[in-house]
Design brief:
This protein has helices spanning 57-74, 88-92, 96-107, 116-130, 168-175, 183-197, 201-204, 216-228, 238-251, 264-267, 270-284, 296-308, 313-324, 329-346, 354-367, 379-389, 397-408, 424-438, 468-471, 473-487, and strands at residues 10-16, 21-29, 32-41, 82-86, 111-113, 137-143, 148-154, 157-164, 211-215, 236-237, 288-291, 451-456, 459-464, 493-495. It has 496 residues and is α/β, with parallel strands linked by helices. It has three domains: 10-114 and 299-305, ATPase, nucleotide binding domain (Nucleotidyltransferase, domain 5), CATH 3.30.420.40; 132-291, Exopolyphosphatase. Domain 2 (Nucleotidyltransferase, domain 5, 2-Layer Sandwich), CATH 3.30.420; 312-495, Hypothetical protein af1432 (Orthogonal Bundle). Strands 8-7-6-9-11-10 form a six-stranded mixed beta sheet, sandwiched between helices. The longest helix is centred in the N-terminal third of the chain and has 18 residues, at 57-74.
Amino acid sequence: MSSQPHHFSEIAAVDLGSNSFRLQFAKVVDDHLIFHDSMRESVRLGAGLTANKTLDKESQKRAIECLKKFGERLRGLPPQAVRAVATNTFRVAKNAPQLLKEAQEALGFPIEIIAGREEARMIFVGVSHSLPKADHRRLVIDIGGGSTEFIIGEGLDPLHMESLYMGCVSYSLKFFPTGKLTAAAFEKATISAASEIQSISKKFHSKYWQEAVASSGTARAIGEVLRLNNITNGEVTSDGLRALRDMLIKFKDTKKIDLIGLSGDRANVIAGGLSILLAAFNELGIKRITVANSALREGVLYELLGRIQHQDTRELTVNSFMRRYQVDKNQAKRVQKLSLDLLGQVKNKLTMDLSLARQYLTWASKLHEIGVTIAHSGFHKHSAYIIENGDMPGFSKMEQEILGFLIRSQRRSLSKLTMPTISEDRCALTMILRLAILFHRSRQDVKPPALKLSWSKTGFDLEIEGNWLAKNPLTKAELQSEVGFWEDINIPLRIK
């Protein structure tokens, strides 16, 4: 990307978790982050998830009210200085798209729903920055409201990541629904968590790492309770966890829990979180665990800082994919150059940010042919499938979906893509990418003709210099076919 890095004195991250919503600010000083103001509300969004995987009205109301407060605090910050991410409950709720629209209006900034493994990656980034530098491998466990992430990494680099659908809210609701704390309920919850962890235990067992770290509110709360109530000397150990479990059972009910350092909202979900942590200790051979102060939101901020400084993880991912799928780099450069040239001609018609449009076209140009390694026939479909379903560090689910759409739409019929229902911006980017590929079909360093693309409510107009088409009958025939593809979805493309 040729644009200059942005310079912001302050950046912010919003973490829409299944238990809590958090807002974290950081000052950017000499390319480093100094964390300062933060806000947290126990929204318990995951608790509003009904049996048919829809969010009830009360939980949605709590979410929107919280985001309005966050939005007020964020007011005045430029869009590039704020990143908001949503996790497990947004991933699984059937009515998440409707809530997302309302949530973005309340916050005043876009919200990205991130995949479990992407959440795990950013958690590790956040945790690693908060710990002393080490050469050994670390296991990081983050118990959220609806999911638990497991990561093994070295330095700042995550190596293995998994996300399991179990969290302190979901397990508390499932195994302690009335708040009753019994030995039988703890046993059922721990066995259930153990069976989930067994699916990853071989890869994440203690023989593959030297230090275990826990992040998130649940782990911090458990660590504080163990220390402040003299259960341990501050360490989180298996003996300490079992002692805490036995103490909770004696209280019999979450409403009666009286432990120093445990707030009321955390008391409601500690049983579920403790059961998961107990199971992790048993299944992964953990002896003791360090509690980190940083987690997802700090990882989001470091990621945002990287993007601002043009050290974007997404660029690293794209380059990795190009190597893995043996992309023809010269062809990618040709398509990218013409795409960006055409974009420059219609940029004033876009409603989306120009830098974002440039990014999508750049990524699409570089990755549109990765499916060729599977099969040349229908390679655009294979390419799109890889993009939409692959692990792409740095990319949100929405970014993968948009990129997959552009790549699937790069050639042949458009009728199956429900084009009339998509945004005009997406339609324009599709047109640009298709034309850039079409004029570089020869795959040679031959300069394309001078093209002038215009875009209005009546469709697209493409003006081609002189009598170039008369000298290039193959391209002329393909352009005629292209006109037909767009006619099929009632979008005129006029060639002049």
